[in-house]
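QA checklist item 7 of 12: single-chain prediction sanity check.
[x] sequence parsed
[x] length recorded as 334
[x] structure emitted
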Amino acid sequence: MKLFFRFALFYLVFACLVAALIRQQGLDLLIEAAVSTYHFAYSVALVAILMIPLILAIPLFVGWNNFVAKLGLLSYALFASAILQTGFSLIKTSIPLIVPFYADRALADLDRWMHGGVDTWVLAYKIGEYLPMDYLLHAYLMVWVVPALGLALILAVADHDTERKARFLILYLFCWLVIGNILAMIGSSVGPVFYDALLGGDRFAGLHAALEQSGVADGRIGFIQGALWASYVERGMAVGTGISAFPSVHVAIATLTALYMIERSRWLAAPALAFLITIQFLSVYTGYHYAIDGYVSAILMVGAWAVLRRVELTSLGARWGQRGASGVVAGSQG
């Protein structure tokens, strides 16, 4: 966890430098980053309050002494997660300034072609007629945020397998940095719900009508979408803002969560897959994403997981440490 914390600090410094160069801001940027980190840590604390029953139950499974012994690791994980999200938001909100949104027409056309000439939000709303959407929508906001913000905390306290812990920390970083920053920049796009606002026209007027009719537009998700667009227009940098459709970080985190659950127990395979399918479905239903955004994220996460399963991470870390120690000895002898 200490290495994870150090990496998060390095990433934040890098993100501040990138944002400062792109936005040509100096001290103001650093102040906003600090304030954003504070607010994000406060948000994490609120999530932690909601998870108090789960946190109180942890000592029952891992033992009180073991739980207390890991409080230091828990602190590293908490602050690293807050720092990581601050850096992520600085990069994400800067994406349209680096690579202006350009890919939506191609993504929308490809998505429609892949699904028989029908926009996938249309298919999602047909399926949604048979589902308890008022309950499912909570999964997109409240359930998803637990692994999205708290996976490192879970690994720090409840996982004793060092190999698996290292693997999923790397995958967690892969999700945010590679999928959420690098590939999001390459496929710079806003998604169906912002398509018409960006490009003009009424290609997704039906989607907006469906969001209104279903009550999504007037609920929490609609409020967030309005805030995201306002932040884009104003070039804001607040944590949690920033628009990026391709690939889907929501589905990437859901895939990561499903993979972790399956590794922990085969009995968790069914709820893990149900969670992944639900997030993929809701990412389309809410208008945030084209279905292809989620498909690509899931494929990338499974591929990265498969590769890391074949690598002995703790062995590589030990060898690196030995080489580093040898280098120090050699240097002192010289």
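[x] summary fact logged: The mean pLDDT is 81.
[ ] second reviewer sign-off
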